[in-house]
Amino acid sequence: AYQSTNNPEFSRIAEETLAYVMRDMTDPGGGFYSAEDADSEGVEGKFYVWRKTEIIAALGEQEGAIFNEVYGVTEAGNFEQANILNLIRRDIKETASRHNISVDQLNELLARGRKKLFKIRKTRVHPFKDDKILTGWNGLMIAAMAKAARILAKPEYARAAEKAVDFILTRMVRADGRLLARYRAGEAAFPAYLDDYAFLVWGLTELFETTQKVEFLRLAITFTREMIKYFTDEDQGGFYFYGSDTEQLVARPKEVYDGAIPSGNSAAAYVLLRLARLTEEEKLAAIGERVLEAFLGDVQKYPRAYCFFLTAVDTFLTAPRHIVIAGRKNDPETRLMLEEANRLFAPETLVLLNDQETGNETAEIIPLVNGKDKLNNKTAAYICENFACQRPIQGFDEFKQTIASYKLKI
């Protein structure tokens, strides 16, 4: 949302959410935990809710009153005589004007208040944490961290994502290479399901696009081939939920409904098509297209129940665009071009770095970067649509102006 609107409120919410995950929901080894309870000491919400008098005591009469007004805190409360802080139907600009302060001053007041309340909340009894680590959910979090790192230019998110990948590779892969589904208390168990493979591959492809480290693309391809091997329905297309190497049940379901999280088939179709565009491997594109064909009848009946499936359809229908930046990764102009390209909301565009210091390692997997090198020992950008490339661009200003029109308006 931030990428498409440039509204800083969206980036703030994203960063605060990721800060919570990194602070409270991350194992020391790097994996992400599953959940945290709503209740503590036998009372639902006790850790999270506030009474009006508590906030006044913590922040003082004047700032406490403004804080309570903004976050909807009342004597009666909105949850069992206490208050869940919320911003529903609150206009920050209008509130600032009424109190004769600027929006910036109000935001600073609120930030101070949150910081003080957070310190108080830390002294409370924390809710129980479900510290099992699920491969699929970690794949989703790796994708989120990688995207945030790329869009917000915050490398600490990419480091967290890389650490989670390392956790999975060292603790959740069997000796024979088979991915496992869950880890807890030193034990990994259960052959991974379709969702685990599809979500992890999604995370790995996002992490490759963020870091431009070819190792993540290699891993994505390896796990994709494993996914095809264990889950493909050769007759009807699409993927089964259970692997062919696990206990054979009476029926092998195939799920495509996109609920709170995408279905395994929707994510699989999406990553297959994205990887096909990176690697130009026609087999991956054909399998991805067959997944779309297998479920199209169901999706047409009620499209809004298959949002991520439609994202895969959009990927299939939209002509690809590649931006290849040739230069040394740490060169200032190269970094500027990468950051500018990553800032754009242009879902059909893949941004690639042909790092002149790592030789042809990237070109071995992504043929499109072959021959796209620096010019006159300076960074150059190559923009290719439908596999036809424009003349190379040198200079950040021209590059920025050229790609500005690629931003998708929503």
Sequence of secondary-structure elements = HHEEEHHHHEEHHEEHHHHHEHEHEEH
Low-confidence stretches: none
Tell me the β content: 5-15%
Mind telling me the C-alpha Rg? 24 Å
Summarize the structure.
This protein is an alpha+beta fold and 410 residues long. Helices cover 51% and strands 10% of the residues.
What report would you give on this structure?
51% of the residues lie in helices and 10% in strands. The chain has helices spanning 2-5, 8-24, 52-59, 61-70, 92-98, 103-122, 135-152, 155-171, 194-211, 214-231, 264-279, 282-301, 307-317, 332-343, 361-365, 396-403; strands at residues 35-36, 39-40, 43-44, 129-130, 133-134, 180-184, 187-191, 321-327, 349-355, 380-385, 388-389. A 4-stranded mixed beta sheet has the order 9-8-10-11, with helices on one face. A 3-stranded antiparallel beta sheet has the order 5-6-7. Helix 14 links the parallel strand 8 (321-327) and strand 9. The longest helix is centred in the N-terminal third of the chain and has 20 residues, at 103-122. The N and C termini lie close together (10 Å).
Secondary structure elements and their pairing?
Blueprint: H1 2-5, H2 8-24, E1 35-36, E2 39-40, E3 43-44, H3 52-59, H4 61-70, H5 92-98, H6 103-122, E4 129-130, E5 133-134, H7 135-152, H8 155-171, E6 180-184, E7 187-191, H9 194-211, H10 214-231, H11 264-279, H12 282-301, H13 307-317, E8 321-327, H14 332-343, E9 349-355, H15 361-365, E10 380-385, E11 388-389, H16 396-403
Parallel strand pairs: 8-9
Antiparallel strand pairs: 1-4, 2-3, 5-6, 6-7, 8-10, 10-11
